[in-house]
Amino acid sequence: KSCLGCWGSAGSAQRGAWQRCRCQCQAQPVPARWQSPSGSPPAFGFLFDVDGVLVRGSQPVPAARRAFQRLTDGGGRLRVPVVFLTNAGNCMRSDKARELSRALGLQVPPEQVILSHSPLQLFSQFHQRCMLVAGQGPVVENAHNLGFKHVVTIEALRKAYPLLDMVDLSRRPKELPPPPPAGFPTIEGVILFGEPVRWETSLQLIADVLLSNGNPGAELQDVPYPHLPILACNMDLLWMAEAKMPRFGHGTFLLCLESIYKKVTGKELRYEALIGKPSPITYRYAQHLIQQQAEKQGWKAPIRHLYAVGDNPMSDVYGANLYNSYLKSAQQNQVQAGQKRSPQAASSCESILVCTGVFRPDGAAPRETGETVFHGHRDFCFEPSLLQPSHIVQDVDEAVQLAFKKENWS
Question: With pLDDT > 70 as the criterion, what percentage of the chain qualifies?
Fold first, then answer.
């Protein structure tokens, strides 16, 4: 196997030179540049969703390996830039990269994986604040890797204030607990990484923090508003695993939190940022990584076309189409302003919907009628046209073939 993480490791390698793998994968030398059958580098890249496109739970989708046989050359090396764009967030990039490596039969470096929370490293204005982190998995490690210096978990907050968590009778204190430890920090913001295990505990303690302005042990007469900043990742209402029907996602948890906060306070819960698909921030970050891969090869020609392959009309199709609208609008604004086009700007992001996950075809494309149920987040306007994919195919292998045909690749 060749290591995709070693692309460009030789830095200033000349055209036609070979680069030796410098990691621990023991890969063979890899060519310094990809080339199309015509000899020119690719002007397009892929944004692959994971769950429902490449895997179903822990099981790979059969078409995934066929697709990557097309995407790789005879030595197992990718011929075009690829980013894995998933709304998963309850894991580390390295863990997701290992899962994909096993599923696809090739080495996937963490740098090619974008989790729902990955763009949070751009939010440096919050990195020095004390942030409450909610979710499951390595939330502390993820927060630190993203640049956040001071974090408190839901479990740490529950232990400091055990009287706050009262739903589960078996976890209620049998005796009056001591006061919180001296020096327990004031919470200055909230990061919602993904759906937690104990929803009732997380909903209660997050609400307590917001209602108390970060001091859940204090008695406040007035509800502070605006409340503390909230950074939320992954807005998927539903996602597809091994079960026949979709499962609740983090978007369902956010819906619960929003409803509780408004019922208690009469005010809307506000987010400082919503990260993950379909947010344009996430697609802009993905485009940056795609272009970064090309630049590591020394290509001067930018990546002009992005193909976003997904199974969820609301997150994958809506997000790709929303970003495509953003690209078109930016181009029009530049023309009207008489500005030159940015040499690194993509010109299109086409959405390709597969039928191996959340979306199940009934013989027709998703309807553009008022009967369509909007599964998107409250803060994203329902625009039915954005739910219409550029293309509908059976699986990811057909998606790759379609893109290759459009780009005149074999």
Answer: 86
